[in-house]
Amino acid sequence: MSIKHNLFTALYRFKFRKNVQNKSKMYRWLSELGYKISFSQDQKFVFVSNNTFDFKFPTESDIPMAGAYIQKDYNFTITKPYVMFDIGMNMATTSILFAQSENIKQIYGFEPFHATYKIALDNIKRNKNSEKIHPFNYGLSNRNETLEFSYNIKRSICMSTLKGSASVKCPDMDKVEIRKASEVLAPLFKEQEYPIFMKIDCEGSEWDILPDLAENNLFEKVEVLIMEYHMHSPEKLIEILTKAGFFVFDFRDYPCKTGILRAVKK
Prior knowledge:
Elements: H1 3-20, H2 23-32, E1 36-39, E2 45-49, E3 54-58, H3 66-70, E4 82-87, H4 93-99, E5 104-110, H5 114-126, E6 133-136, E7 139-141, E8 145-151, E9 172-180, H6 181-190, E10 196-200, H7 206-215, E11 222-229, H8 235-243, E12 246-253, E13 258-265
Parallel strand pairs: 4-5, 4-10, 5-6, 7-9, 10-11
Antiparallel strand pairs: 1-2, 2-3, 8-9, 11-13, 12-13
């Protein structure tokens, strides 16, 4: 792939991400993809649906469907059974998307923020194959701790459990629980009969999670990993995954220090 092509793709993605913050453009894109957009009588909720999916979001919140449903950031050809771990579940849209695949047998989702988690539970109940999804109302990190973080429902996709990481104004506070990833995932990984697919989008906590998993040799059963990275250039994350036996493909969003890593076992 040429440098010119990489730069063009990165600039397109950067422009796209800025436009996603404009809800009227998001509604238009979803409508063009065949989704029906409607609002509750009191205008407090927006409904996004088609023949397969049925979502309900607060009108003031983000619509977290851009990456998985429009850009298809997490798409890969699923030719055999997997168990999915969704770290940074948000409002469960990505978990619900993968739950429709016959080859995704179970999904474990982790979302620390209470208001976002409540919306996720409602969306899971509204959609088919909800029994596959096992949601947990805490985040993953490299330690066990309960902390108070700033929160803004209008920008739920940007909320982070890293101190001082807020990139938008946050009028509310939320006391959230984070748990050590290796302690949570080790017993769950051990009981799985199928290989693991990990989706990670946790607004910076990946810098704590991946070293913890590597130090505890927990990548053995993981065959596919697709993750967003934030705040720093990803060389350290790529090094961790490469040492764990993955081929790693880096898709960066220039000029931002964000991008997507796609990793598959060698």
